[in-house]
Specification:
The complex is a heterodimer of chains A (210) and B (233). Chain A has 210 residues and is α+β, with helices and mostly antiparallel strands. Chain A has two domains: 11-56, no CATH class; 59-209, Jelly Rolls (Sandwich). Chain A has helices at 11-38, 45-48, 52-57, 74-90, 95-102; strands spanning 61-64, 108-114, 119-126, 131-138, 143-149, 160-167, 169-175, 180-187, 194-202, 205-209. A five-stranded antiparallel sheet of chain A has the order 1-2-9-4-7, covered by helices on one side. Chain A has a five-stranded antiparallel sheet with strand order 6-5-8-3-10, with no helix packed on it. The radius of gyration of chain A is 25 Å and the shape is elongated. Chain B has one domain (47-232). Chain B has helices at residues 6-21, 32-40, 46-59, 61-71, 77-100, 107-125, 128-133, 139-159, 168-198, 202-205, 207-232. Chain B is globular, with a radius of gyration of 19 Å. The N and C termini of chain B lie far apart (55 Å). The chains are: A alpha+beta (210), B mainly alpha (233). The interface between A and B is large, with 37 and 45 residues.
């Protein structure tokens, strides 16, 4: 039946081996794995070794923000549209107030965390000719970004870049030149995670983080 | 100064050491570039899926630890082939079945079971079942059954990405073949290393310690995944 001839250990050495394995595994888990992966740190060792910092930063995430007044009457929307452009242009210094003032005018608002030293993409699907108005700002640090679109179904890796720069905010409007995913690539070259708040409106479908 | 004879060994070892350091070598994560590709990909892409499958296997330490446990006491080539084929059959079945039927298996639970499969094999290699229960569970069936779980684990990795439904099976098959290629490459290295080690007496004196460490690794993975399940539930 069994073609393996494994040596059978004595009961004593079997118990010792199992107990040792369980003990070592617990120590590794409690002191290193759990603090680094989940930020669970009962001994405080993880914090001492700086491991808990990993669990806070390793995952890029985006979190939709609640918008208090998503649908606006047409007229108000037009007026606020102009206001929005003005505010967006001024919104270099205090992002928070600007963003609070803008919130009701946007369709979607999302908070995106870019981990230290990493890059990510956040995209929208746009039909040809569809519009996307946007305004985003970071919590301070400047990020390298590339606002671009890829034609639907294209496999050559081609993309058209609309705006490429390094800044802590940007805003504008886009009319999609072709159907396909459009959005930003942000790269965080700093040593700390950077949070972006991205506000958008237009006729699109959110594809989200990539 | 390093003695001249040791230098080649260093040179061979260095790439492996670097591989260990590379951040992409975390089991189960698919690294950022792969992720971007998978999400953007719309059609049949045999080459990339072959590569992703192979890479997942070569860098997936949970699968590798289990394989090390399985072939640890297999001395004949024929046995290695039989057991590895059973493992392959097991994980291919559930990989194909799971993805094609869109089965939603909790990745944390599956990875926890994969951790337990390593614990089982370490314990089995210590002769634990024969000592404690007086009988040996059929090792071939066990390898096959745990292979099924490993396959579900592979399936959950692919399902993280909404793969295009059109021609899904082509990409899936490419991924599966890639997994086998990766497994073959990894096995080759494991077998060469084990074969070397078996010629020394230290293999026998350290076999208990090695299998204890195997159990440790399995338990660590188990705890890691189970905690993930509990806090994400």
């Amino acid at each position: 039946m069994n073609d393996i001839n494994t040596p059978v250990q004595s009961l004593k050495s079997l118990i010792i081996a199992t107990a040792f394995a369980a003990l070592l595994a617990s120590i590794i888990l409690i002191s290193a794995v759990l603090p680094a992966e989940y930020g669970i740190d009962p001994t405080g060792l993880g914090k001492m070794m700086g491991l808990t910092a990993l669990s806070a930063q390793t995952k890029a995430m985006s979190q939709p923000l609640a918008i208090t007044c998503p649908v606006l009457p047409l007229q108000t929307a037009e007026v606020s549209d102009q206001n929005q452009k003005q505010t967006a242009n001024q919104a270099t210094g205090s992002t928070e107030t600007a963003q609070k003032a803008q919130l009701p005018q946007w369709q979607d608002s999302v908070k995106i965390m870019v981990p230290a030293g990493e890059g990510l993409e956040y995209k929208f699907h746009l039909a040809k000719g569809a519009s996307l108005e946007y305004s985003w700002a970071t919590d301070g640090a400047k990020l390298y970004f590339d606002f671009h679109g890829e034609p639907q179904g294209d496999k050559t890796g081609y993309f058209k870049s609309f705006k490429e720069s390094t800044d802590n905010q940007a805003s504008g409007a886009l009319t999609a030149p072709f159907e396909g995913p459009h959005g930003w690539y942000w790269e965080n070259k700093t040593r700390f995670p950077v949070t972006i708040i991205l506000n958008t409106k237009g006729s699109y479908r959110i594809l989200g983080l990539m | 100064m390093t003695p001249a004879i040791q230098r080649p060994a260093w040179l061979i070892g260095l790439p492996f050491f670097l591989l260990l350091l590379s951040p992409s070598v975390f089991a189960h994560g698919v690294d950022a570039n792969t992720e971007r590709f998978l999400l953007a990909n719309q059609g049949v892409a045999v080459g990339p899926f072959l590569y992703i499958g192979a890479k997942h296997m070569v860098t997936g330490y949970d699968h590798l630890l289990f394989l090390i446990g399985v072939i640890f006491f297999l001395f004949r080539t024929r046995d290695v082939l039989v057991y590895v084929s059973l493992f392959t059959l097991g994980h291919s079945l559930t990989l194909l079945f799971g993805v094609l039927n869109n089965m939603a298996v909790n990745p944390f639970l599956i990875d926890a079971i994969i951790g337990l499969s390593i614990v089982y094999k370490g314990f089995d290699n210590l002769g634990g079942f024969r000592r404690l229960f007086g009988f040996q569970p059929n090792t071939k069936i066990a390898v096959m059954v745990f292979g099924l779980f490993h396959g579900f684990g592979l399936a959950t990795k692919l399902q993280d990405f909404s793969l295009p439904q059109a021609a899904l099976w082509k990409n899936l098959l490419a991924f599966n073949v890639g997994v086998e290629i990766g497994q073959f490459v990894a096995l080759l290295f494991i077998l060469i290393a084990l074969d070397f080690w078996r010629r020394h007496r230290s293999f026998y004196s350290f076999s208990t310690a090695t299998n204890t460490l195997l159990m440790t690794g399995g338990l660590t993975l188990f705890g890691y995944q189970l905690t993930g399940y509990l806090i994400n539930a």
